[in-house]
Amino acid sequence: MMKIIQKLLNELNDLKKNTLINIMQIQFIFLSKKLDTLIAKMPINHKVCQPFGYLHGGATMILAESVGSSISFINIKNERKNIFSIEISANHVRSIKKGILLAKAQIVHKGNTLHFIQVHVYDEKKNIISFCKLTNIIIPKK
To answer: Would you say residue 78 has pLDDT above 90?
Structure first.
């Protein structure tokens, strides 16, 4: 099972090439055996901060949507379907200036058409930075 998990993580990290996920230096680092939890990390540097030196909320949302969409992708990978995020919201509860940001996405509901994803964004000391939720729609490929 561990080889399958590592293969899926490698595939996710390979898919990000030439995308916004790669520009943001997001790396997928953990996938649960049940394929319902995915963790990614992103470094905080001046490129993802607002003019006052704090992490930009938009950068946090990019991390949350990237990990939330990817856990949906893993769950329909072998089906002829596409995933599109149709809603994302966040509550930013703590500011941060440097370090590594982590995002843990869990599927709350996995229907045939919609996936509801909860994403907790936290720092290296496990302090919560943001609570996010994401809705993905699953559409058959044409």
So the answer is: no
Q: What is the DSSP letter of 69?
A: H
Token pair listed for 13: 């990290």
Under DSSP, the state recorded for 17 is: T
DSSP 115: E
Helices 2-15 & 57-76 angle (0-180, nearest 10): 130
* Exposed/middle/buried for residue 47 (C-beta within 10 Å: 0-12, 13-18, 19+): exposed
Cα distances (angstroms) measured from residue 73 to each of 50, 69, 110, 142: 30, 6, 12, 17
5: number of CA atoms within 13 Å, CB side? 13
Please check the confidence at residue 94 and state whether its pLDDT lies above 90.
Answer: yes
Question: What Rg value do the Cα atoms of the chain yield, rounded?
Answer: 15
Residue 91, helix vs strand vs coil: strand
Residues facing residue 107 across a β-bridge: 117
- Residue of 65, 79, 87, 124 marked catalytic: 65
What is the pTM for the complete model shown? Answer: 0.94
Other C-beta atoms lying within 10 Å of the C-beta of residue 89 = 11
Active site (annotated) includes residue 124: no
